[in-house]
Amino acid sequence: MAQAAMQAGAQGKYEVRRLASACEFPPPAPACPLSENTHRRRMKELLAEMEKDCRKAKWNLVRAALGLRNSTSAEHMGRN
Predict the structure, then answer these.
(1) pLDDT digits (tens, 9 = 90+) for 7-51
(2) pLDDT in tens, 47-64
(3) Residue 18: how many CB atoms within 10 A of its CB?
């Protein structure tokens, strides 16, 4: 029974691919994290761009996320 289900699934995938090809659908984008367009890469580029204008952009974002006000990194780490 399991083998029959696997064969039916494989047949279904083949049919879907055949239909997609006949309709000239574009192939799906890769979901691989090593692909070119990842959220991580875009955020890294955005942060680099922000740091051109503001040298402490990353630290400011961390401070804002943690709800810290007017503290330095040394104060936050307990090194004052």
Answers:
(1) 556 677 888 888 888 988 888 776 666 667 778 888 999 999 999
(2) 999 999 999 999 999 999
(3) 10
Determine the Cα–Cα distance for residues 60 and 50; give it in Å rounded to an integer. 11
Max Cα-Cα span within the chain: 69
Coil, strand or helix: which one is 34?
Answer: coil
Q: In angstroms, rounded to a whole number, what is the distance separating the alpha carbons of residues 46 and 48?
A: 5
Instruction: Kindly state the DSSP code that residue 60 receives in the 8-state scheme.
Output: H
Structure tokens that stand for 59 in this block: 């630290």
Give the global pTM. 0.41
Residue 71 to residues 10, 13, 17, 76, 78, Cα–Cα distance (Å): 59, 57, 57, 7, 11
